[in-house]
Write a structure and sequence with these properties.
15% helix
């Protein structure tokens, strides 16, 4: 990643409630898993939780996924950082497209890629994405 300070600063702070009803820190750690390459970006996992059940604030389980996958499981929400870097100026477009296909296969999403003429990583999923852009 071109901004190593950002990678070093990525920190998951997850809170809950203790048996006494007071708030406590469940997780204070770096991403639970990641897939990426310096200068090319990647996925940095924070949390993966079922939406069908009431959230138990006393459950101290770290729900950060151990393996990065693009889409959440059915009925779940996934929270992550993702980093997109500009492609290297010297890289041929076909090599960039091939690298995108390889990366998407690595995180279980090869079938999500669409029109690579628009962008090498153009993809479509059945998810709601909420994105905060930091430039």
């Amino acid at each position: 990643m071109s901004h190593p300070a950002f990678a070093d600063a990525m920190r998951r702070v997850i809170t809950g409630d203790g048996a006494d009803g007071r708030s406590l820190i469940i997780v204070d750690a770096p991403p639970s898993s990641e897939i990426g390459a310096p200068g090319l970006g990647g996925l940095y996992e924070i949390w993966h939780e079922a939406l069908s059940e009431r959230l138990d604030v006393r459950d101290a389980t770290d729900r950060g996924p151990h393996t990065p996958m693009l889409s959440p499981d059915t009925g779940h929400v996934k929270v992550r950082w993702f980093v997109i870097e500009p492609p290297p100026a010297s890289a041929p477009p076909e090599a960039i497209k091939a690298a995108a296909r390889e990366r998407f296969a690595q995180f279980g999403a090869a079938d999500h890629l669409r029109d690579q003429t628009r962008h090498p990583a153009m993809h479509q999923t059945d998810t709601l994405d909420v994105i905060c852009l930091i430039s």
